[in-house]
Design brief:
The complex is a heterodimer of chains A (163) and B (281). Chain A has 163 residues and is α+β, with helices and mostly antiparallel strands. Chain A has four helices and eight strands. Chain A has helices at residues 2-13, 22-29, 112-121, 123-149, and strands at 32-37, 42-44, 52-58, 61-67, 71-78, 83-84, 98-101, 105-111. In chain A, strand 4 and strand 5 (71-78) form a beta hairpin. Chain B is 18% helix and 31% strand. Chain B has helices at residues 83-89, 126-138, 161-169, 215-227, 269-276, and strands at 14-25, 28-35, 49-54, 58-63, 74-79, 96-103, 116-122, 146-152, 173-179, 189-190, 207-212, 235-238, 254-255, 258-259, 266-268. In chain B, helix 2 links the parallel strand 7 and strand 8 (146-152). The chains are: A alpha+beta (163), B alpha/beta (281). Chain A binds chain B through residues 62-64, 71-77, 100, 102, 139, 143, 146-147, 149-163, and chain B through 49, 58, 60-63, 78-79, 81-85, 122-125, 128, 151-153, 157, 180-184, 186-187, 189-195, 198, 213-217, 220, 240-243, 260, 265.
Amino acid sequence: MGEVKSIRTLLAENPFFDGMSDAHLATMALCGKLVRFKAGEFLLREGEQAEHFFLVRQGEVAIESHVPAAGPLCVARVGAGGITGYSWLFPPHRNSFDSLALTDVAAVALAGQCLRDKAGADHELGYQLMKRFAQVMLDRLQTTRLRVLDIYANGRTTDAADG
Amino acid sequence: MRPTVETTSSMLPQPFRVLDTREEIPGCVTIRVKPADGSGGCGFAPGQFYMIYVFGHGEVPISVSGDPSNSAELIFTVMAVGSITRALCALTSGDTIGLRGPFGSAWPVDALKGRDVLVMAGGLGLAPLRPSIYQMLHKRSDYGGLAILYGTRQPQSIVFPQELADWRKDASIEVEVTVDNAGREWMGKVGVVTELLSGRTIDRASTSALICGPEIMMRFSAYALIDLGVAADNIYVSMERNMKCALKMCGRCQYGPYFICDDGPVFSFDRVERLFKVRSL
């Protein structure tokens, strides 16, 4: 019970859950557990079943993919207060990227199946969760689009303008 | 906004001798020059540019990237993107080039005294901003908070890495560098430069921002700052267009009602915001 209370408090302290009701936080806490990873350990592995997402409490996590002949390539960093893991939300519930602990990491792991069941039984909880994840995913989508636009390239192939 | 520096508004390039060159990143070279006749007179204001003539190749506008307090020499950082800049990047110590300038408007560094300043740079955009950083650091106590937010593609494409590291050691400056992607050896941030604004507490009334980079980077950065409450007239951008005469005569660099060579390159964002939305410009 002590751990449930502790997780509920940790959820309440995370800005991601700002505005969420106490009842919903308590329900979600039932799906959570405290976890720790040593530097170099993986929170999530690409291609594996997406059973959890993580609220990072301490430490740094790299979101990576492995590029053949080039090795791991980091596409995002998640620090304290951040979230990693979205694949639990939608079928086929398979992780798309690795999440690697760059330092020792303390996190709250929330079980995807448990949350999906509770959101299915309480659609208000489902809406509140989906609203928050949609915002984070929109932010990530926008920044990903900026990267696709290659905003640091000026597109110049001649000396026509100021350099 | 108009700097009170002595300008050489002549069509005749003055000979300058290359002191040395240094490759910053592949295809990008920093060149240090001084007047070939040994005279001083290298004054400029941060953000201004010179027309650099590479004999036998042609003339190209390049912003000064050096310290404005050093009037004995000029420093330019050049990316090789065409025949003239390729020739510039191939210069060696002792070579001679022709310079006209300085031209254009400057970062309003003096007017920012007493304010918090956010310097946002993308890619090689750090080069035209560097003189403004030097000037603020020379009189650090005249300014409030100073943050340098720099984004580039990869750790290998960071320009002035040593200086960024030195600035980071200064507790009075906040330096954040982010890259689009990186290997595990990179311990900094990963993401686009606008993400460095996320979660940042800004005093809306007393914050000004200087932004330089490709136009799309400046556009997204300016709107991210406006979303945080920074007024458009407290955001400054450095524009670039095809400049030839640099004397507001040829019209090549016309940008709406402005000529970038003389009305710019530095503009407050409120003056050019509507032009950013004109797709044919």
